Amino acid sequence: VVHAANPIPIPGSGEWVPTVCQGCTTWCMKEAYVQDGRVFHVRGNQHSKITGKSGCVRQSMALTELYDPDRVRYPMKRTNPRKGRGEDPGFVRITWEEAMDTFAEKLMELRQKGEPYKYMTTRGRYGFMSGVMLANITRIIGSPNAITHSAICAEADKFGPYFMEGNWGYRQYDIKNSRYQLSFGADPIAANRQVSFATREWGNMLDHAKVAVVDPRFSSSAQKADEWLPIRPGTDSALALALAHVILTEELWHKPFVGDFFDGKNRFVSGQTVALETMVEAADAAVEAEDTTQGPTAVPTFNERYTHGLVQWWNLELKDRTPEWAAEITDIPVEQIVRVARDLGEAAPRVGIWLSRGMHMNTRGSYSSMCGHALAGLLGAAENDGGSMRFSARPTASLPDGAAYRDDLAKAGIAMEMIDRRGRLEFPALARGRSGAGVISAQPANSILEEDPYGIEVLYSSWNNFVYAQPHAQEWEEAMKKVPFQVHSTLNLAEQSMFADIILPASHSMFERWNVVANSGNGYGVVGIQQPMVKIGDIRQDESEIPWLLAEALDRKGFSAPLEYLKNEFTDPETGAHPTNGDELGLIMVKMMTRPFWDPDSTVGGTKFANWEEFRKVGMWTSDHYPFQSRWGNMGTKTGNFEFYSETLKDALQAHADRHNTDIDNVLATCNYEARGELAFIPHYENPVRHGSESEYPFLFIDYKHKLNREGRGCNHYWYTAERDTEPGDFKFGDAAKINPVDAERLGIETGDTIRLSSVSGTITCTASVWEGVRPGCVVKAFGMGHWAYGRNVSEEFGRTAIGGNNNELIPGDYDRLSGSSVFSGQIGVRVEKV
Ligand code: MGD
Ligand code: SF4
Asked: Among 184, 528, 599, 800, which one is least packed by beta carbons within 10 Å?
């Protein structure tokens, strides 16, 4: 708005436009302040029952991503055919038409060769419309290879909650009503999945709840906790089992959820098994079994209410998992283990058990996830007031999948084995209990290098930087050299771009595109829309305009199915109109997906809207509050109960074994787990796998997310480097590897020294920081620096040298195969040398 007599805009005359931040997986509902075609400010959406107008520090960094002077502003093509670090791609500007025609040409060549499955799409972060370009059109072309980044994010986190509670997903924590929070490595006020809500409520929560943080690093949350448990890396499950042991021996479990012994007398005694059944006299039995027959009769020794298999779990595993046993393994003193267990028992069921990458993204992390989550069951905190619950329902409508547009060539292509080898004997990837249903995000690099099951010839990467973000990043560099044609849709040139043949300048998710994103927190499910409010350069919306342009280009080459799919199947629910361009497609997709929320006839509950326009202005829908305890007895597991002995996992493992004509023990041996027999179905201890011998690599590496990390992005933000010391022990403009003073003295290392870190995977150089907040024997280093190709603030010399080192060159390529997750934690040996 400008004053008639004065061309200078009147301050405050802009408007707040609703959108959603995707700076981390919290996906907060936002409003952006827009005036005269510029975005000035971001705040929490005032209608949000999770955050209100508050937000985390990183929300503002979205603005400097948007206005980053190093952003790509137009399509480009490579002129130097040689690919690799140090090779200048020689990018030159081209038109959108040339870019999409070249892309379409390469796809058509694959179809003409009868090999459309050699097309792969990779997805990093995404909006809910991403499936149209990355999966649906890919399948119409004839490839099954839509690879997401989920397994380098936190798939193992879902393993315990699914196989014990039927929830393949993350959890929301009712910290407002909590009395105890136990975190296994999660740093909720800095990272994890509820950051804005956690930062807003943490201080209040400390007034009514105790907090214990298990972490080899003195994290932001540990700094505000009542207890810090600086655990030996990779041993969290031992601690969780010992806590469970004390909870049972001291009769602290939550009886209204778990149940009790038939006669109320606790039989959980260290080292002693408990009989599954007990013979009781006729009179007692009649009462217990509601039976009128005479004589001694057998009754279950323990009557479980909403759980399954507690006594089996005790007998098979827990009875010997004493605090003394765990103290040896974890280095956490017996008294502290007992104290935390008692405090948990006293606070039950108002207890939050947070799991994190540090606990479970390791070689046997599926079972760590089970061990941690089992505590939520024992304490009655699952799906309960003050505890944790699955995400609230957010019933967006699904988009048409385009199956009818697949010809015979496409059908044959999508029947091929997927490039990530999911479902092979050695890759069960048991998402939602199905063999091979999960992604193995890191595996394609290896598959490409070995051409097993085949090579990839055309790659479309969207919003990811796998050459930097994947463990053992060196392997991705090598693999990318082998893929002859690549397109990268990105905001910034990144390491991934250095291998691309075409660069497509993408829209910033928060300010420049239509999309739908949903999340949960504070007991509410929320669904929000992103809407275009500004446009920088000649960009296109990545999940609507780019698929449209590709479909048009394919149509020009004589392959009309993708364009027909987009034109015919997408309909504006208000007007009945079909899209005529990608921008219209974006708006129509958003209206279709969100219709259940704004259509006055809808029955989904939550916020009511009269029509689309009213919904658009608010920008978000909120569900009714989560119904605590409604899942008790109806968990979605095989038995319907919280399974300490997972019948659900037993079935899943059996199905995978049957698929390969083998038995479960062989599956576990092949996948590098120690369990045999029934241990496979319960939370149990597995020795951590150490990468690198203790003699050669005596330290253990701890990778974490700096509180300024917007996942892998935002790293070219001036604040990201200038304010790195917002994490204690980090430096401004530097890349710190933090070590304990005891170790530093032994090695003759001082703060500021240049040091070399080596592992079985590689070697990097960075700067030593001597800091007491590191457990002795560990090296702590934040993920995020070491970019050899990004922007002016984060790369030393673009395309060649980095500031510091990329953690992923140290982290070896290994998997937790039951979940498909990559390994980032556990016991990664490193050597530290002063340079
Ligand atoms: P990013 O690194 O965030 O995602 O890793 P990836 O999935 O690879 O992707 C960065 C790219 O996306 C850049 O090219 C950037 O310019 C582009 N980009 C940014 N915004 C947009 C946008 O709005 N649209 C489009 N099209 N492109 C955009 C993240 C991954 O890293 C994740 S999620 C996790 S949880 C892991 N974290 C992690 C860790 O903690 N430690 C270590 N060592 N490695 C990690 N890797 C994983
Ligand atoms: Fe929310 Fe994460 Fe964005 Fe912060 S960075 S505002 S926690 S989505």
From this structure: 800
